[in-house]
Amino acid sequence: MNIRAEKNRLEDADKRHLWHPFTQMKEWLDEGPLIITEGRGSFLKDIFGRWYLDGVSSLWVTLHGHGKREITDAIKGQADMISHSTLLGLTHKPAIELAEKIIAITPKNLTRVFYSDNGSTAVEIALKMAYQFWQLKGEKKKRAFLYLENSYHGDTLGAVSVGGIDIFHKIFSPLLFKGFKAPSPYCYRCGLGKSYPSCKLQCLKAMDDMLGNNRHKIAGVIIEPLVQGAGGMIVSPPGYLKGVRKLCDKYKVLLIADEVATGFGRTGRMFACEHEEVSPDIMCLAKGITGGYLPLAATVMTENVFNAFLGEYKELKTFFHGHTYTGNQLASAAAIANIDLFKKEKTLQKMQGKIALLKKELAKIAELPHVGEVRQKGFMAGIELVKDKKRKTPFRFEEKIGWKVCEKAKEKGLIIRPLGNVIILMPHLSVSKEELMQITDKTAEAIKEVMG
Ligand SMILES: *Cc1c(COP(=O)(O)O)cnc(C)c1O
Questions:
Q1: What is the CB neighbour count within 10 angstroms for residue 72?
Q2: pLDDT value for 155
Q3: Is residue 84 situated within a structural domain?
């Protein structure tokens, strides 16, 4: 087979029929796409046989590497039995056993698992459940949500309603429900003009006021614990998350922890909430849940939330919500194998030295002239590029600076993706120290070359 001809055929068909997510397709049509054919460990192979380091875990999902035997075997074994039945009126072993495993590893108050198939639906379910919870409790006015500036909870309309990234979300505002937007704990560019720690977490005070004044209207607070991912890897200061939990208790609102990005080891603990010993009322899980093999999500909640929905058939307390592929067998089998690998491979223990190494390498990158700040929590890292380091002047949107750095990195055999002016590094949890050094070295070189 002539590879060049095959590549041209695929590229042509892609450009005729595909519409890529978060992509300006006019630009896409003018560029040559990278066509991926294979994955092994921390690497991706393109159609010409060139290998690239996967520096963003294939969009924040891959944990134990590509082509991991235990996970592919679990999927194959399950496919030989059955690939899909349904959880509407039936049940099955993979969904049951996965629920047991999820409950065993999530914070202690969480007891129930509701499945869906992506992060956005996990969030929709959390929002609808929190709303209906208060309706069933007779607190009919508690129906709004408090969310943060720079937050990202997915792309469906409910999730966008609690999203705080204007360039993604603003155009849809007429379609959205209203909520309360609290300041982001973005210390590098503090909206309140304070600096940590002398601020004594003024941003929490703002949330306190909002909740205090509107406690009768607010059903829940939704946050990405510790790291606002898509907002640019904004790491909240110590004590912030615990403070939010306290406010939720004080004003009787549910805390929804969206751990879609931070969950499953990303921050160096199994879940970000563990760092501050916080147990949310509802937790959303997706991305890493199958280790990057199949789409699956789970919304996990307390027995208190669950109990509110129990009643006689005719009372209509039922949660009328469900997605067709809810708890799919193949995805559940992959998730079980993925979770089992954490113990077998001592993933979290082995990560600690690598997290320290990443920190050391990022500190060098922080010295570069156009790097305003580096932020890191475990294996979630962001490098914020600025025009003027002293004044923190951002690059303009149209300068596409993040995009240029990532294109340069691609030439060097590293796949990374920017979020505006922030370069994101999200290595596989199983990355080797050598590979990790290559990721940071190539990133540093790309930044230097683009900045001239
Ligand atoms: C990615 C993400 C989502 C959305 O997940 P999808 O599977 O893309 O729908 C929701 N919340 C957070 C924090 C995320 O990072």
A1: 14
A2: 97
A3: yes
The enclosing domain of 171 has a CATH number of 3.40.640.10
Distance CA 90, CA 98 (A): 16
* Distance in Å, CA 44 to ligand 1 centroid: 23
pLDDT computed for residue 285 by the predictor: 99
Question: Which residues does the chain have with pLDDT short of 50?
Answer: none
Structure-block tokens of residue 43 = 């690497």
Considering the domain architecture, whether residues 302 and 291 belong to the same structural domain is answered as yes
Is the CB of 158 within 6 Å of ligand 1?
no
Say yes or no: 351 and 331 in one domain.
no
Q: Give residue 452's pLDDT.
A: 85
Counting from 1 in the atom list of ligand 1, the atom nearest the Cα of 121 is 9
Q: By C-alpha distance, which of 232, 283, 290 is closest to 260?
A: 283
The amino acid sitting at 399 is E
Same domain, 105 and 237: yes
**Does some domain include residue 13?**
no
* CATH number of the domain where residue 419 is located: 3.90.1150.10
pLDDT value, residue 167: 87
| Cis amide prior to 185 (ω within 30 degrees) | no
Tell me, using a 6 A CB cutoff, whether residue 56 lines ligand 1.
Answer: no
Of 344, 378, 393, the last residue of a domain is 344
Q: How far is the CA of 132 from the centre of ligand 1 (A)?
A: 22
Tokens 């998350």 correspond to 241
Same domain (yes/no): 355, 292: no
pLDDT for residue 216? 97
Name the residue of 120, 236, 325 to mutate for ligand 1: max ligand atoms within 8 A of Cβ.
120
Instruction: Give the Cβ contact number of residue 141 at 10 Å.
Output: 12
149 found inside a domain: yes
Atom of ligand 1 nearest to the CA of 59: 1
Domain membership flag for residue 11: no
Contact partners, residue 268, CB within 8 Å, separation at least 6: 348, 351, 352, 355, 377, 378, 379
Enumerate the β-bridge partners of residue 417.
424
Cα distances from 17 to residues 14, 25, 31, 34, 435, in angstroms, run 5, 11, 15, 16, 36
Please, how many CA atoms are within 13 Å of residue 209, restricted to the half-sphere of its CB?
7
Coil vs helix vs strand at 258: strand
Residue 56 lies in domain:
34-64+346-451
